Amino acid sequence: MDILTARGLVMTYGSTRALDDVDVTVGAGESVAVMGPSGSGKTTLLHVLAGILRPSAGSVDLAGTDLLALSDAQRTRLRRDDFGFVFQSGQLLPELPAEENAALPLLLAGAPRAAATERAGGLLRRLGLAGTERRRPGELSGGQAQRVAIARALVGRPKVVFADEPTGALDQATGREVLDLLTSVAREHGAALVVVTHDAGVARWCDRTLAMRDGRVVSQFTAPVGGAR
Ligand SMILES: Nc1ncnc2c1ncn2[C@@H]1O[C@H](COP(=O)(O)OP(=O)(O)O)[C@@H](O)[C@H]1O
Ligand SMILES: [Mg+2]
């Protein structure tokens, strides 16, 4: 079953076609890597799929809901309830301990503090962060901070997690560890994942890879059955 279906996406900025007739589908629980050179439209695609940017043309459907037909308030609510986000870095609140950073979406949605931090703590431990729950971002390594960001993206049990170069600020070994965790934990939670990455080894963890160039999807390949999953 497809959870996210985008058809004929076009995004123009003046004479630049950041997206040039892109079709994308993401299956429920599927992990999709998006690769391509700088400026090829990866971030624009992610933002359009996530309902952050309105395309110049095309449609985006989330499990039967036309994202572009919603009001701004409805789309904001859908983003909060159904989507999780991981960015490159700098997304944690410096004054909050790891556990509360990870629990933030639940706390903002009005969940009781004990239940929210308990669920966040469980995710942090699954991500190898046992013992760091009370540390603030300044007391974490870059890789640890990104794992807290992953916990925060998943804590609300989203249908889709979007990650834009989540390991771009990390060294390659740490980056791979974080990508491996991101894909496996998303899979365990039944969340689909759309991750922009420059690591060509990512096909090892994702179900499918899309290659972009000049605003178009130029190739799609599926991971071999029985890969590293
Ligand atoms: N807000 C914007 N205004 C004007 N041009 C933009 C804007 N955002 C992106 N672009 C242009 O669209 C193209 C695709 O950008 P982007 O999606 O950020 O690519 P990537 O993430 O692959 O590096 C680039 O040519 C970029 O300069
Ligand atoms: Mg980008």
From TrEMBL:
Pfam families: ABC_tran (PF00005). Keywords: ATP-binding, Nucleotide-binding, Transport. PROSITE patterns: ABC_TRANSPORTER_1 (PS00211), ABC_TRANSPORTER_2 (PS50893). InterPro entries: AAA+_ATPase, ABC_transporter-like_ATP-bd, ABC_transporter-like_CS, ABC_transpr_LolD-like, MacB-like_ATP-bd, P-loop_NTPase. The keyword Transmembrane helix does not apply. Residues 4-228 form the ABC transporter domain. The keyword S-adenosyl-L-methionine does not apply. One of its GO terms (molecular function) is ATP binding. PANTHER family: ABC TRANSPORTER RELATED, IMPORT ATP-BINDING PROTEIN. This is ABC transporter ATP-binding protein. It comes from Kineococcus halophytocola. The lineage of its organism: Bacteria, Bacillati, Actinomycetota, Actinomycetes, Kineosporiales.
